Amino acid sequence: MKLLSVAIPSYNVQFFLPRCLDSLLYDKETRDYLDIIIVNDGSQDETLAVAKKYAKEYDCVRVIDKENGGHGSTVNSALKVAKGKYFKVVDADDWVNIFDFKDFVRDLKEEVADIVVCNYKQDILYDSSTQDFIFCDKKSELINAGKIQDEIEDENFFFKFSMHSMTVKTDSLRAVWGSGLLEKTFYVDQQFVALSLLSAKTYKLFNYDIYRYFIGRPDQSMNPESFFKHRKDHERVLKWLLALTKSNELQDKDYLKTVLQRQITLMLRTHYAIYHNNSQRLAAYKELVAFNAWVGEKYPEIKRPQLSKKMLLKSAAGGKK
After folding, report:
1. Nearest 5°: phi and psi at 225?
2. CA 92 to centroid of chain Cα atoms
3. How does residue 277 score in pLDDT terms, banded at 50, 70 and 90?
4. Which of 63, 98, 113, 175 could form a disulfide with 204 if both were Cys (CB 3.0 to 4.6 A apart)?
């Protein structure tokens, strides 16, 4: 019985993929319960060769080789073929804590919650620091999804329900997946969170420290310059989330609508910050002004951050490139 399908989106990660796979495969007894799906997203280096080497050595490892379509396309591809009771995404440059992971997987055998949330760490390259995200110190009771709204004031709420912390029942996720995550688009992890919450009737917190999120590579989407370069992707995901708040799928789920509105407000803060504090971005600030007006007209219930008056004046004057 496969308890956990692990999707590993992989693009030009030949030097990182072995660390990720070795952490997942460390415990021999756990391997029988795993369904590891490496999705090579049109890599230009030796990523595919590394993936095939592991697939040849371990029966629980499979490889999907596809044209480049972005992170969302890799998750879509993996979910289609997943055999596990639960589904988790582990990016190829991240890894798992080998000590807690084996116990976590075995616990999934008797688990019934639609979403399982675990603690995790961020390992930050540029200053060699680690940030802990600890949500519980003992396994919780089964929690009704409607109670999520009660936790929304918790400052860790959207770290708790992040792609790094969440493991989701495969069948429940497929039931709401529809066309899936946007392809050739950054920041689709926010879609994954929204769809996971939409799929869930229950969730549970586990006191396991599982995920190691590696931050600091210059080509990562969270890099400030990458944020600005891919700002239209960020906007595209925001528009998808905004549309979801009006969808029929949220009927009788007012608690989830509240959660999504808060998620969008936090994303809007990040989106607006992309355009601030950099004179080279003044010329693009009119994009933000137009987007802000569009959100206000179409979704007046969404709380929006204040636009910078200084940036507005400079942008109106033409800005500087």
Report:
1. -70, -35
2. 13
3. low
4. 113
Query: 110-119, 126-135, 204-213, 291-300 — which is least confidently predicted?
Result: 126-135
For 123: left if phi > 0, alpha if psi spans -120 to 50, otherwise beta; the answer is beta
Mean pLDDT, rounded, for 294-298 = 97
pTM, full prediction: 0.93
C-beta atoms surrounding 13 within 10 Å: 25
CA pair distance 186, 248, nearest whole angstrom = 26
**CA 58, 66, 220, 197 torsion-angle sign:** negative
Tokens 């529809």, located at residue = 178
Tell me which residue of 64, 4, 32 sits closest to 210, measured CA to CA: 4
Nearest to 122 by CA among 34, 22, 217: 217
**Positive or negative torsion for Cα 82, 83, 85, 89:** negative
Domain 4-215 has what CATH class?
Answer: alpha beta
